[in-house]
Amino acid sequence: EWQTRLAFWGEAIGSEALRRENARRFAEWSAFLEAELVSLVRRPADRRNEDNLLIGVVDGLALRLVLHGGGEEGGGGLGREAVRSLGRYLKALEERYA
Asked: Are the C-beta atoms of residues 38 and 52 closer than 8 Å to each other?
């Protein structure tokens, strides 16, 4: 999925229609994450900030996996490392708002 997304982003650079579609999907993803964060992050401004940061973390880890190999053979455990990193990020998020 992430290989397809990365290819889509590359094509969207030169296509207004694809950029609009990307913005629509990004808004859906953002709304989903904000809804998930409601019980943890009370202030709307903080929730939007955490939503943006979480999307950046997920996108960045996914990009790294696509470009550097997510499989254990070629990625040297990069997939497991990404999962651990995301878990640590979510734990820190939870602790920040506890």
From this structure: no
Cα–Cα distance measured from residue 39 to residue 41, given in angstroms and rounded to the nearest whole number: 6
- Cβ contact 41:50 at 8 Å: yes
pTM for this entry:
0.79
- Whether 78 and 69 have beta carbons less than 8 Å apart is answered as yes
Q: What is the DSSP letter of 43?
A: S
Within the chain, which residues score under 70 in pLDDT? 70-76
Residue 66: both structure tokens together: 């696509």
Give 93's contacts (C-beta < 8 A, 6+ positions apart).
40, 41, 50, 54
CA dist., res. 16 & res. 29, Å (int): 20
